[in-house]
Design a protein that fits this description.
The complex is a heterodimer of chains A (111) and B (114). With 111 residues, chain A is an all-beta fold. Chain A is built from no helices and 9 strands. In chain A, the strands form 2 sheets. In chain A, strands 1-9-8-3-4 form a 5-stranded mixed sheet, with no helix packed on it. In chain A, strands 2-7-6-5 form a 4-stranded antiparallel sheet, with no helix packed on it. By secondary structure, chain B is an all-beta fold. The chains are: A mainly beta (111), B mainly beta (114). Chains A and B meet through β4 of A and β4, β5, β9 and β10 of B.
């Protein structure tokens, strides 16, 4: 079972920041937070991951709370192409072989 | 370009027939995976392989078989024993030796059994 909880859907206006929340209250000390997204009828795409420090790459920023029980993925300037299902996953670095994908959260970016 | 290819994108088969889905990667990744996705659901792991000539069952291996004769290839056979084979099948790979944890996914094959 997925160890994370995400709202089922969210809307965002094009050009605005999209803040995608994720709760992982049972996260263990050695587990990382990973984010993937899946555009309709395509394979999932890796976005970013982190342990406890905030992370940023060319796609997004990941903010993890100090107690690590929740995190927020930030798309700074959402575009129509960011419309997708976003999955928040926790897993140990180099640990279990499978990624446990829950139902994720559908982000719709509106013009 | 480096990446993972799956073919075909759409596949139709009659009930009772075995069908093999192709997955090829040129990323030199050691580990490869097969997932199944049903409408509105997350991904479920079918089989995975960390090295050539070795593979392990995932959560829903019944009715499926795999082989890993080459590092680049990890074909999945959906047998007639799989009771509900219509689904979206995704192949992925990971640089297991390098310690990276990101899985890279192919574009998927949508299988419809008539």
């Amino acid at each position: 079972d997925a160890k994370t909880t995400q709202p089922p859907s969210m809307d965002c206006a094009e050009g605005r920041a999209a803040n995608l929340p994720c709760n992982h209250s049972t996260i263990s000390g050695n587990e990382y937070v990973y984010w993937y997204r899946q555009i309709h009828s395509q394979g999932p795409q890796y976005i970013i991951h982190g342990l406890k420090n905030n992370e940023t790459n060319e796609m997004a920023s990941l903010i993890i709370t100090e107690d690590r029980k929740s995190s927020t993925l930030i798309l700074p300037h959402a575009t129509l192409r960011d419309t997708a299902v976003y999955y928040c996953i926790v897993r140990p670095q180099g640990g279990s072989e499978k990624l446990v994908f829950g139902k994720g959260m559908k982000l719709t970016v509106n013009p | 370009d480096g990446g993972i290819t799956q073919s075909p994108k759409y596949l139709f088969r009659k009930e009772g027939q075995n069908v093999t889905l192709s997955c090829e990667q040129n990323l030199n990744h050691d580990a490869m995976y097969w997932y199944r996705q049903d409408p509105g659901q997350g991904l479920r792991l079918i089989y995975y392989s960390q090295i050539v000539n070795d593979f392990q069952k995932g959560d829903i291996a019944e009715g499926y078989s795999v082989s890993r004769e080459k590092k680049e290839s990890f074909p999945l056979t959906v047998t007639s024993a799989q009771k509900n084979p219509t689904a979206f099948y995704l192949c992925a790979s990971r640089d297991f030796q390098g310690g990276g944890n990101e899985q890279f996914f192919g574009p998927g094959t949508r299988l419809t059994v008539l």
